[in-house]
Amino acid sequence: MIPAAFLTCLKLFLSRCLKLTAGLTLLWAQAQAYQQQLLALVAKVAQLRSQIGSVDASENLEAMPNRSLVVLSSVSRSFSGIRLLLVELRLHIRPL
Hints:
mainly alpha, 2 helices, 84% helix
């Protein structure tokens, strides 16, 4: 016969393994979603870089600072989004 205490410990262990597996599955799904968002932000930054590089020298010099400010503001928001994603991902990983 198997002792009842052993079966209780085994049941508790398996229950915790199932909870951990469920938690890791959820974390994996969130990490994949964050990866997709990060890839979208990287694509946005690449697009903004190409916009910065495509400024024509013949453009009105008075309009260029305003355009640059808009592009830089958009890049800043993109990097803020990346930073927030990384912080959130770190918070989800830390409890494990």
